[in-house]
Design brief:
By secondary structure, this protein is of the alpha+beta class. The protein has two domains: 7-113, 2-Layer Sandwich (Phosphorylase Kinase, domain 1); 119-299, Alpha-Beta Complex (Aminoglycoside 3'-phosphotransferase, Chain: A, domain 2), CATH 3.90.1200.10. The protein has helices at 7-15, 20-27, 29-40, 79-89, 103-106, 125-139, 152-164, 171-186, 223-231, 235-240, 244-258, 263-283, 287-299, and strands at residues 43-47, 56-61, 67-72, 97-99, 109-112, 115-119, 192-194, 203-205, 211-213, 219-221. The N and C termini lie far apart (48 Å). It comes from Streptomyces katrae. InterPro entries: Kinase-like_dom_sf, NH2Glyco/OHUrea_AB-resist_kin.
């Protein structure tokens, strides 16, 4: 079987500052996939398509027929931190790690098989948000002692560098986002283990639970930061709706109240994360995405 890198992954890596390790990893991906399969004594069935923006996922089977999924991610995606977070959650609200014995050799993750083609995006939005909130409640736990995760303040400090060099068309919003971030990180209210990249597409149907999350980019901080990405899910639908800015604000309030999160902190983190994503999209020449994100941020 040929393990060609998914085009979404190739494009996503192309938008990031190139690193020698990630470039080498992408060039060797077919070979690395074969080696990872042999180490774990599993057989590939197919590549999960269209695939993610940060990894190659192979649907595999053990010799006894037990299904699993093998995930290979570039070094820059910090697969070690993903493993640490999944191990800490222990399958509660998240996909379960089946075998981590060879992780140090190749960074690959052997995970339980979920239903990769059925995410919360297959549900009506109101039902999807309800299920998403239930999943988040399970994930928000205290981090392990001496944990390896960066904090929300550390991650957003690095992201702020891009905002400071935003092009003129995005500069007013970038300045607003930077001011909000300074306010939010001056006195963070809590330090919980967060998914870091939570949205409806990251929650898949499963056998041992109705829905389990995948693909964390874990960090430690407040719940409002984690919830902020969910606010803008199905962005094109939200932008096309007649409710407009009022609808976006109602969505913030509804999600905040559902999970007992401060409304104003959720609104502010949603603005920061939308502007940061919008400026990043501009830098990658994804103008349509950038315009939607920045307009949504302006609504809030």
């Amino acid at each position: 079987m040929a393990f060609e890198p998914p085009q979404r992954l190739v494009r996503a890596l192309g938008e990031l500052p190139p690193t020698e390790r990630d470039t080498e990893w992408l060039g060797r991906l077919p070979e690395l996939a074969e080696e990872a399969l042999k180490r774990r004594d599993v057989t590939a069935q197919r590549v999960q398509a269209p695939g993610g923006r940060s990894s190659l996922v192979l649907l595999v089977r053990y010799a006894d027929g037990t299904p699993a999924a093998l995930k290979l991610a570039p070094p820059g995606a910090a697969p070690d931190r993903e493993l640490d977070a999944l191990a800490h959650w222990g399958g509660f609200g998240a996909v379960r790690v089946l075998d981590s014995r060879h992780h140090e050799e190749d960074g690959a993750l052997l995970l339980e098989r979920l239903h990769p083609d059925v995410s919360l995006r297959s549900l009506p939005d109101a039902k999807a948000l309800l299920e998403a909130c239930g999943t988040l409640r399970r994930l928000w736990v205290g981090p392990p002692q001496d944990h390896p995760f960066e904090t929300v303040a550390e991650r957003t400090a690095a992201q702020s560098e891009l905002l400071r060099s935003a092009p003129p068309e995005a500069r007013p919003l970038a300045e607003t986002a930077l001011a909000l971030r300074d306010d939010l990180t001056s006195a963070p209210p809590e330090a919980l283990l967060l998914h870091g990249n939570f949205r409806q597409g990251k929650v898949l149907a499963a056998e041992r639970a109705p829905w389990l999350t995948v693909g964390p980019d874990p960090l430690v901080g407040e719940r409002a930061y984690d919830l902020a990405r969910l606010v803008r899910d199905r962005l094109e639908d939200q932008m096309a709706a007649s409710a407009g800015a009022a609808g976006a604000r109602r969505r913030v309030n509804k999600l905040a109240d559902s999970l007992e999160v401060d409304r104003e902190r959720l609104r502010a983190w949603t603005v920061f994360r939308a502007v940061e994503s919008g400026v990043r999209a501009l830098a990658a020449d994804r103008r349509r995405d950038a315009e939607l994100l920045l307009e949504f941020a302006a609504w809030l």
